[in-house]
Structure formats: C-alpha cells, structure tokens
Amino acid sequence: MKVKEAERTANAAWSPAPLPDLMLAAGTAAQQLDATFSSSARLEIFGLGLGDSTLEMPVLASVETPSRFHCISWGAHGLSTGSRPAGMIVGGSDGGKIALYDARKLLDGQPALLETTSRHTGAVRSLDFNPFQANLLASGASDSELYIWDLNSPSTPMTPGAKAQPAEDVSAVTWNRQMKCKVVAWHPEVATQLVLASEDDHTPAIQLWDLRFATAPLKTLQRHQK
C-alpha cells in the first residue's frame, strides 16, 4: 500500500536514527532526465507528514546545488557533540566531487554547504557513514577507487588498499553493521587471520576472520552473556 510519494528524479537517504523526526533527503539524480527535461539540481528534505491523509510529502528544505548527485547519505556526524544537531548530508557527483552539507542549517534556510572535495578522479557513485563512528565516511567511485574519510579532517582520506583489477566503477559501499569491535588480535601463526571481540552487551560474540575469505567469519562464538 502506498503511504506517501514525492515526484522527483532523485537519489534519497533517510535521516539518522537518533533524530526524533523521520525525514528523507533527496538530491537530483545525475545522468537522468525528468518529465520537464530540466537541467537544474537541488537538494531537498522531506517530512513524512504521516498525520496527513494525502500522499504528498511536505518539503521542509530545498536548496539549489552546483551538481547533480549519483548518491547521497545522511549521517549522525556532529549529533553527539551538538555541533550539527541534525547531522550531515553528503552527496557524490561527477568529477570526483563530494559535497558536505549541515542538515540543520539546510532546514533553517541558512547557507548549508560546508565543504566540497574532489579527491576522487571519477564519478562518486556510493557513500556510507560508519554506524558506530559517525565521523567516518566510506566513498566509492570510478576506476575502483575507495576512500575512508575522517570528517573531522576531510582533507586527508585513507585508502583501504590497492585498487581492484581490472578497474571498475564502485557502485555500492557499506560498513559492517553486525558487530562493534572492542578488541582485535592477529593470529600468532597465520598472517591472514585475526579475532574480533564485540563490546555490544546485546549481541556479545567473538569472531575469527581470514582476510583471504573476508565475505564471512570462519567461526563465531556466542556463549558469553555480556
């Protein structure tokens, strides 16, 4: 059953869980045309308006942007410190560009663009905030490029390793959301194996991983209570 709709040719991202009101950010999609054949680009925030019986989603904020977006993500960076009470919205575009927006300023109608980086060499097609450390952002782009950004110091991203060959577009990146690790220890005899220990009392676990087969842990031990 359809509950709400917004007629946009856009990439979208939900607001982070700590915010009391659920919202949806939408950035005009790159390399797409809508029914009006418009070449403009916008970043918008919609409310759900679930108390309203109509399908329309109210527009809470809207700003014109210099570029259209291949992807957007809305993270909790700045929520815990209060420096950004509504978190941060990031968008990936052509030319290796990643734009960072203060969501609260966007909602308040203030200039919200914090910074634009162009470290990638091709179109940025995927973005994901770390669910446990909100200042960390993963990005994937053309030519097998992957970067990890510390948004407290976004001028110096880290690459997790050599580019995959043959080079391809990285169309999706995501962090491990199953386990928040407290301790990491390498195997004393097998150079590619390590053990992770969870600090989450709800799902305490110890996992053995082999980096040669990193799609899933070799073993998971879950007898601990905390």
UniProtKB/TrEMBL annotation:
<dbReference type="InterPro" id="IPR001680">
    <property type="entry name" value="WD40_rpt"/>
</dbReference>
<dbReference type="InterPro" id="IPR040251">
    <property type="entry name" value="SEC31-like"/>
</dbReference>
<dbReference type="GO" id="GO:0030127">
    <property type="term" value="C:COPII vesicle coat"/>
</dbReference>
<keyword id="KW-0256">Endoplasmic reticulum</keyword>
<keyword id="KW-0653">Protein transport</keyword>
<dbReference type="GO" id="GO:0090110">
    <property type="term" value="P:COPII-coated vesicle cargo loading"/>
</dbReference>
<protein>
    <submittedName>
        <fullName>Protein transport protein Sec31A</fullName>
    </submittedName>
</protein>
<dbReference type="Pfam" id="PF00400">
    <property type="entry name" value="WD40"/>
</dbReference>
<keyword id="KW-0931">ER-Golgi transport</keyword>
<dbReference type="GO" id="GO:0070971">
    <property type="term" value="C:endoplasmic reticulum exit site"/>
</dbReference>
<comment type="similarity">
    <text>Belongs to the WD repeat SEC31 family.</text>
</comment>
<keyword id="KW-0677">Repeat</keyword>
<dbReference type="InterPro" id="IPR036322">
    <property type="entry name" value="WD40_repeat_dom_sf"/>
</dbReference>
<keyword id="KW-0853">WD repeat</keyword>
<feature type="repeat" description="WD">
    <location>
        <begin position="117"/>
        <end position="159"/>
    </location>
</feature>
<dbReference type="GO" id="GO:0007029">
    <property type="term" value="P:endoplasmic reticulum organization"/>
</dbReference>
<dbReference type="GO" id="GO:0005198">
    <property type="term" value="F:structural molecule activity"/>
</dbReference>
<dbReference type="GO" id="GO:0015031">
    <property type="term" value="P:protein transport"/>
</dbReference>
<keyword id="KW-0813">Transport</keyword>
<dbReference type="InterPro" id="IPR015943">
    <property type="entry name" value="WD40/YVTN_repeat-like_dom_sf"/>
</dbReference>
<dbReference type="InterPro" id="IPR019775">
    <property type="entry name" value="WD40_repeat_CS"/>
</dbReference>
